[in-house]
Amino acid sequence: MHILRKPDWHVGESAATPEDMFLNRRQVLAGMGIGMAGGVAGSLMVPLAAAAAEEDPSAGLYPVPRNQSYQLDRELTPEEVNSRYNNFYEFGSHKEIHNAAQVLKIRPWEIRIDGMVEEEKTIAIDDLLKAMPLEERLYRHRCVEAWSMTIPWSGFAMKALVDFAKPASSARYIRLETFHDKEMASGQAQFWYPWPYVEGVTLAEATNDLAFMVTGAYGKPLAKQFGAPLRLALPWKYGFKSIKSIRKITFTDERPVSFWEQLAPAEYGFWANVNPEVPHPRWSQATERVLHTGERVPTLLYNGYGEHVAALYDEVGKTEKIFY
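Predicted structure:
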C-alpha cells in the first residue's frame, strides 16, 4: 500500500489564499522619501481573472492535473482575495493594482533564452507551453512584508526549463528579466526604480524540485496582476524573488544583482530565504498575517519547505547571510 506522507508544509485545498490579495514595498520607499499612490476604490472591482482567461489563447489548456506531492496544511486563499491584493510595481505602488494591470499586453509574448547555453533562442509563450509538462501545485507564499497566502499555481518545474535551455557546465546562475515598456506600464515611468525588474537564482536553486515556472492559477491562465503570462514561484523564499511577466532568461557565471537589491541592498539581498529568527532591518519576521483570515501565525523556517531546500545552503551559509 502506498502511503502519502504529508510534509510539514502540507496545506489542504480549502486553505488556499484568494486571488485578490498580494502586497507592497511601501515602507522601503517611504524610508527613501518616495510617496505612494493611493488605492483603487472597491467599486472598480470586476471579475478580472475571468476576463484574463477569456482573452488568453492558452485557456483551453486549463485546468491541468494536480501534482498530489504538493499539498498544504491551511486553507487555500480564495481567488477573489488573491486577485485584488497584489504587488506589481510596473503598474503602481499600491496593493489594489489589479485594475491597472489589465493593460498588460500578453500576446504576442516571446521569451529570450541566452547567455551560457548550447544555443540562444527566442520562443513564443504558446510554443513554450506546448513543450512543457503542465501541472498544478498548491504552494505557500510568504511576503517579506510579513503576510502570507496559499495558492494553486499551474505551470511546470523550472528544472524542465533548464533542461530545455541546455546550459553550459560553467553556468552557475540564472538572471531573469521582465518587460520594459513605460508607455504600457505607467509605473515604469518612475525614474527612481532600476527598470526593468530583474531577479536571479543559482542553478542549484533552479533545479530544485520546488522551483516552479507559473503559467496559471485557480485552474485558469495566469491573471495579469499575478504576472502573466509567465512568472516564477520559489515558495521557500520571500515573495519578491518570484519575478513576474518574464521576458528574458540568461544563464551566466556572474551573480545577478536584483531589482530590490539595487534599491536597498541592506534590506533585500540575493538569497532572501524565509527565516523567522532573522528580522528584517525594520520589522520582525517571527509571525505572518494570513490574508484570507487575518490570523497571525508563526513563520516557519524556509516557509516550511526546509526539508527540501536547506541543503542548498550548507556551504554558502558558512560565508554569507542567506536570509537577506
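Summary: Residues 48-55 form the longest helix (8 residues).
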